[in-house]
Amino acid sequence: MSVFVEESGSGSPAVVLLHGQGASGVVWDGVRAALAGYRCVAVDLPGHGRSGRLPGYPPHAYAAAIAPALPAGPLTLVGHSLGGMVALALADPALGLDVGAVLVLAMKVTWTEQEASRRADRARRPPDHFPDRSLALRRFAKLAGLGGLGGLGRLGGLSEIGVFSERLASGIAPDGDGWRLSHDPATAADPPVTPRELRALAGRLAAPPHLACGDQDPMVSPDDLALLGHPVTTLPGAGHNVHIEQPQVVAELVRAAVPAPRPAG
């Protein structure tokens, strides 16, 4: 199974960027721009974007698929929501990666029965079919937290819809005489990972993870994220998609978690 990664910059450590459910690596464009001088590796998670699909999507399966696609040497892992869980799994010493720091953003720790039921319903639902490419792009933009094509200027300052459309094309795929979203609905088929399982993942790390959450996040509260057993940085004015809303703030969190990059070679 292939895993798509997109690199920018150079030096060490490499900053690996792991997106959330239904998105792709394009959502990190603003953070990558804010981290000029760092080597950034934006990953399309398995079952998303330009990456292949897996038979199932537990944390260890994501990690095992992604690990061979990452560069050698020291890594800083930055994960948003689902990507935070994947970052914890990738940092497990048993996987053998050289991980120096882990930053987890807005990862949901507890799920109500109603939330878990809605998630399972989405996984069973046939993929939406879009007769028009622009409709598919708009749907992907909304699902990825970009708020539609009109909000794409937050991805690094680009303003032309045509440019943005090509960046967003990672999130859609041909479907007969139309288009569909490229992410695999089965990524939501497994029951949510439990707080106990997430604490166990965090407990295996060589160093405590850095945790952050917006105070306006409707899905994840700082108290929820704190159930991992580590301090949480609360980000004023930020909603769930802080990496899109406040890329400079996320870049500062990365700089605080890792040393300045060393030149390549």
- CATH topology assignment of the largest domain: Rossmann fold
What's the CATH architecture name of the largest domain? 3-Layer(aba) Sandwich
What is the 3D shape?
globular
Biggest sheet strand order reads: 1-3-2-4-5-8-9
**Count of helical regions:** 10
Count of individual beta strands: 9
Estimate the mean pLDDT confidence. Answer: 90
Q: Which percent range describes the beta-strand content?
A: 15-25%
Helical content stands at 25-40%
Q: Which class do the helix and strand fractions yield?
A: alpha/beta
Main CATH class of the largest domain? Alpha Beta
* Corresponding CATH superfamily of the largest domain: Alpha/Beta hydrolase fold, catalytic domain
Would you spell out the secondary-structure blueprint of this structure?
Elements: E1 5-8, E2 14-18, H1 29-34, E3 39-43, H2 59-66, E4 75-80, H3 82-90, E5 99-105, H4 113-124, H5 133-143, H6 161-168, E6 172-175, E7 178-181, H7 195-203, E8 210-214, H8 222-225, E9 232-235, H9 242-245, H10 247-257
Parallel strand pairs: 2-3, 2-4, 4-5, 5-8, 8-9
Antiparallel strand pairs: 1-3, 6-7
Helix pairs in contact: 2-3
Organism: Phytohabitans suffuscus
InterPro entries: AB_hydrolase_1, AB_hydrolase_fold, AB_hydrolase_sf
Pfam families: Abhydrolase_6
Entry keywords:
about 260 residues, alpha/beta, Rossmann fold, 2 domains, 7-stranded mixed beta sheet, two-stranded antiparallel sheet, globular, Alpha/beta hydrolase, AB_hydrolase_1, AB_hydrolase_sf, AB_hydrolase_fold, hydrolase activity
